[in-house]
Amino acid sequence: MSTGVPARPRILLIDDERDLLEVLAAEMEEAGYDVTCVGSGAEALECARTQQFDLILTDFKMPGMDGLQTVAALAEQNPALHAILMTGFISDEMRYALKQRCYPCLEKPFRLEDLLQTLAGELRMPAPNRHSPH
User: Fold this and answer.
1) pLDDT reading at 9 higher than 90
2) pTM, 2 dp
3) Longest dimension (CA), the chain
4) DSSP characters over the chain
5) Of the residues 3, 10, 16, 44, which has the fewest C-beta atoms closer than 10 A?
6) pLDDT tens by residue, 62-100
């Protein structure tokens, strides 16, 4: 029975902290994911022009485009794309924006087990209808 999830899901990992990118990528690859790392929203958009991804895992607060702006731009290219955001601090305003768009969020520091569980759960579910509130 097929779950609709590729054998090795492709993850686009976006964070401006290079050390965190390397650690997370190594752990996710060991868990069976195919991970591509970039350091900014602009790099993510460029990367997504030539590659297909099943899920985006992005930091919320980055120079230039923030995580929500990056996910919104990538979702225009691929509306079925799943996304998970990471942040060191989540305000009530951010929590509301994430809830409106149906994106899960992991607060840093998080446990590896929590990340892997969130990835697996998000990839098993159909992509929700994600919209920008008007």
Assistant:
1) yes
2) 0.85
3) 43
4) ---S--SS-EEEEE-S-HHHHHHHHHHHHHTT-EEEEESSHHHHHHHHHH---SEEEEESS-SSS-HHHHHHHHHHH-TT-EEEEEES---HHHHHHHHHHT--EEESS--HHHHHHHHHHHHHSPPP------
5) 3
6) 999 999 899 999 999 888 889 999 998 877 777 776 666
